[in-house]
From TrEMBL:
Span of the signal peptide: 1-30
Identification of the protein by name: YXWGXW repeat-containing protein
Pfam families in alphabetical order: TSP_3, WXXGXW
Natural source organism: Variovorax defluvii
Composition bias type Low complexity, residue spans: 125-138
């Protein structure tokens, strides 16, 4: 019985030490870049729903999955005060296409200023809003 207990203790210690050596990816780690030779199809036309207070619109875009382009429909994402949402995009570099995932960017100095205000309440800071004073928005 003592040998069994010692074996189990050694086995558990081995598993714990192995677990410490294995790292799981976190959201803070950089995502792997997607670089392909095939250009994405043209963006699809989609109807943007009325603004939602406290949310930012993430427009539809093409993603590369399982060796082909797949359309991902636009959707609302919860707004982050002091940040501006950057939509996903494809950029061509030297005949290759690189996909940049959507992300939240902090203001340069990290402090919201008057240009970061959202006068019309659509979740888009004025500096990034094409129509910051749209009277038709609630």
């Amino acid at each position: 019985m003592k040998k069994l207990a010692i074996s189990l203790a050694v086995g558990a210690a081995s598993l714990l030490s192995l677990g410490a050596a294995v790292t799981l990816p976190t959201t803070a780690q950089a995502q792997p870049a997607v670089i392909i030779k095939t250009p994405p199809p043209p963006p699809r036309s989609e109807r943007v729903p009325p603004p939602r207070r406290g949310y930012a619109w993430a427009p539809g875009h093409w993603e590369w999955r399982s060796g082909r382009h797949v359309w991902v429909a636009g959707h609302w994402v919860r707004a982050r005060p002091g940040y501006a949402y950057r939509a996903p995009e494809w950029r061509e570099r030297d005949g290759r296409w690189e996909y940049n995932r959507g992300r939240w960017d902090r203001d340069r100095d990290g402090v919201p200023n008057r240009m970061d205000r959202d006068r019309d309440g659509d979740g888009v800071p004025n500096r990034y809003d094409n129509r910051p004073n749209n009277p038709n928005r609630s």
